[in-house]
Amino acid sequence: MSDAVYSSLANLGIETQERLLAQATLKLEGLIPWSSNYTFLASAEALAHASDLEAHRFLVIYKPCRGERPLWDFATGNAERGSLSHREVASYAVSRQLGWPRIPPVVFRDGPHGPGSVQLFVEADPEAHYFTLRDEPGYADAFRRIALFDYVVNNADRKGGHVLLGTNGDIWAIDHGLTFHVEHKLRTVIWEYAGQPISQALLDDLARAYAALRNGESRLRARLEELIEPAEVRALGHRIRRLLREGAMPWPHPQWRNVPYPLV
After folding, report:
1. Cis peptide before 230 (omega within 30 of 0)
2. What is the model's pLDDT at position 69?
């Protein structure tokens, strides 16, 4: 990797971060090891505003569509429209509507190996993951939100390593390619909160998201219809409605495998 100094973009607004991700010039730095699909670390450079004298330099995670490996229960897309890449971006759109959990900004765009998802790289403790952090009381609210979000988007792959501890102490959730299936697919390592009541604040967030889904002209509805299938958008609404009706965190399914492999 070059000796360039990279910024975190943390001091910029979220819309500016998304615009930088969409417009930046990308340079591949190398493959991320142990990824099930082709995943690259890339350096990026872009101007936040046309009047800027110096470009922002930052790191991103780039997942090209053509690097998606087929799965028996999740169809991949093609070189132009990646199923897993679109699901990454759709998950981020839902998190933006809800206001939780923290997911690094991600966009769908062209790149050195064709279209794919490009996500802001988050500096994190490489030794930390869910199993090293779950007994820390200060992270319980963040983990509860991640567990609830995973049910909402039907996440089939919440491994412990998909939870990051940022260098500033924030908890981040990553890797949301296996989401939005119309059938129950929830597989997660975060089951500590099963059966617990959902706070009124989180129910209010869910109610607003449900209203946005039912509004055919809402920004969320339009974005999701660009990224996932209509039946998957409807299934998302059904899951949120169930949470609003029951008011409690879901239990493991009695007839399905409820944890991913491997666990980390």
Report:
1. no
2. 82
pTM, two decimal places? 0.95
Q: What is the pLDDT of residues 209-252, one digit of tens each?
A: 999 999 989 999 999 999 999 999 999 999 999 999 999 999 99
> Which distant-in-sequence residues (6+ apart) come within 8 Å of 64 by Cβ?
38, 40, 82, 85, 111, 112, 113, 114, 115, 116
**What does the H/E/C string look like for the chain?**
CCCCCCCCCCCCCHHHHHHHHHHCEEEEEEECCCCCCCCEEEEEEECCCCCCCCCEEEEEEEEEHHHCCCCCCCCCCCCCCCHHHHHHHHHHHHHHHHCCCCCCCEEEECCCCCCEEEEECCCECCCCCHHHHCCCHHHHHHHHHHHHHHHHHCCCCECHHHEEEECCCCEEECCCCCCCCCCCCCCECCCCCCCCECCHHHHHHHHHHHHHHHCCCCHHHHHHHHHCCHHHHHHHHHHHHHHHHHCECCCCCCCCCCCCCCCC
* Residues 6 or more apart in contact with residue 98 via CB below 8 angstroms: 149, 152, 205, 206, 209
Residues in the chain: 264
* C-alpha of 224 from chain center: 14
Q: What is the pLDDT of residues 246-256, one digit of tens each?
A: 999 999 998 88
Give every residue of the chain whose pLDDT is below 50, as ranges: none
